[in-house]
Amino acid sequence: MKKCSNCINDMSVRKIEFNKDNVCNYCQSFKNIESKLNDYDNLEKLFNERIDEIKGKYDYDVAVGISGGKDSMFVLYELVNKYHLKVKAFTLNNGFLSDEAKKNIDKMVKEFGVEHEYIEFDKEILRKFYRYSMKKWLVPCMACSYIGYATMINYTSKINAGMCIHGRSPEQMLRYFGNDIFTVLVEAGLKSIKDININNLYNELLKSIENKVDKNLMKDVKEMLFKDIKENNFREFVSYFLYHEYNEKKIVNFLQENTSWKVDKDYNHYDCLIHSAAKYIYQCAEGRPHVLPEISVLVRSKKITKQQAEEKLKKEIILKKPIQELNLLCNFVSLNQNFILFKAKLYNKVVKK
Questions:
Q1: pLDDT, position 232
Q2: Residue 9 domain flag
Q3: pLDDT of residue 327
């Protein structure tokens, strides 16, 4: 299988292209912003500019989505203790939030002294949207992402917060940079706030997402997710780790040493009860772990070598089918597990080729 000469991306990565030197389009797109991502003096200036623009001017300075995971908890800590912002934290309860995550959330918001709210959804609409995502893309992640983005945008306006800050890692943000909806958010984030038309940006962004979803379903989803937002009242959706250095081990160590946040060794995605099911389905469909594009970001960022990346990828392979998690997911969307796995393997053998 053809591979990128610069990172470890191969032909299994969606919408991948190669130039004459076998460098993939994602490496080429990354190169266009690489210098900006490493200019921490300017990044600090851009972040502080955003803080100065909103601090003390709204009911809350920022709204922060937290899942109980390491990244969002670290971001919450920093905003409260380093930047001294008035924060309203919230958690999207999509039905798959683990009890361990809830315990950490309840404990940490009390420890940090911040207001917090669990956002509940209409279960039938959730079921329809997740079922649609499974039937169209085989995994629930597309539904989860849209629900997350849309709810954050709506909720920030609802509580009258200056902006919404999230804790997605650089690898998550940049894995498909140049070819996904997150591209415009990254590009906007690297500009001065004065050079961005927030309302135009988010109206166009949401339209592009809606075009990918069934119109009848979209009507129900919009009524659920956008019932509170006022027209042209968007607030910026800001990535904390676009402006700050990201080091997973340092973040975990910091939380364990300075807070009561505690999880088992497997702290990645422990908050999601169906994460391993989605990973397994993806692996069946693509013939490799779903994190390959994310690991490639580490390579092009020069954080690890290609050899280290290959070794890291091997460790992500799921050798045993996660039966319990698959049952939970498939029962929720009323789809036969064997049917989903058959479609995934068929995609791998026929459609993808």
A1: 65
A2: no
A3: 96
Whether residues 208 and 307 share a domain: the answer is no
At 36 the pLDDT is 97
Pairing of strands 60-65, 161-166: parallel
Query: Is 278 found in the same domain as 238?
Result: no
Whether residue 150 lies inside any domain: the answer is yes
